Amino acid sequence: MANPNEPRDSQTSREDNLFATPLEDIQRFSFNKAVVDVFPDMIKRSVPGYTTIIGMIGDFARRYAREKTKCYDLGCSLGAATLSIRHNISVDNCEIVAIDNSQAMINQAKKLIDRDNSPTPITLLCDDINSIEINNASIVVLNFTLQFIPIAVREALMEKIYNGLIPGGVLILSEKVAFEDPSHNQLMINLYHDFKRANGYSDLEISQKRESLENVLIPETLTTHKNRLKKVGFSDADVWFQCFNFASMIAQKSL
């Protein structure tokens, strides 16, 4: 059975073969139309536990969304987390704000969201999440988004999110992570590459995409994430899901 929280065309999206042939000039990775066209296939084959994380974001929404507040999906891509929140909110007068800086992503997300008839209103914005205001939020989601933000401004973004949450509000932060111990870090990378091979990616695809993402996707350790979250004020921050070098954390603002 298809997951109702996934974008509805995810079963029929094009296969991700963007890096399947040798490229003379490997471009810096960006969320352009070529990526958008294959994104559902790409993320399912590239992110272990993605479907579980999307489903659980809905469970968190059911628990933490509050009446007369907003739920933010920062870096919403095609809206999988946005729809998961929408399908599970159990309170009235709650609004979802979904933001992405890729116009191609927003254009496709709008088509998918417009097909969904759930009542909770969604505002879609093409903008830089570092520039937008966050206020009266009961939930903020950063689902594999922070890793694409320059490290120098990550703390400021976390502080803005913290200040924009209501007491008791939560941040769901999913990231590709690194590990302090070099041998363990390499083991997790190797296991992750095995995961990608098992999902049909060739060594050439793995190598070329990794080169494309170099200095674009910059992972940090779980300790770094936890320390930053606590530094900006979160009373509780810890991992609720991890598979290889991919993890999701929940951080809560004190009541």
TrEMBL record:
Q: Which residues form the Methyltransferase domain?
A: 73-169
Residues where S-adenosyl-L-methionine binds: Y50, G75, C76, S77, D100, N101, D128, I129, N143, R210
Catalytic activity field: prephenate + S-adenosyl-L-methionine = carboxy-S-adenosyl-L-methionine + 3-phenylpyruvate + H2O
Gene3D superfamilies attached to this UniProt entry: Vaccinia Virus protein VP39
Listed under subunit, the entry gives: Homodimer.
Give the similarity note: Belongs to the class I-like SAM-binding methyltransferase superfamily. Cx-SAM synthase family.
* Protein name, per record: Carboxy-S-adenosyl-L-methionine synthase
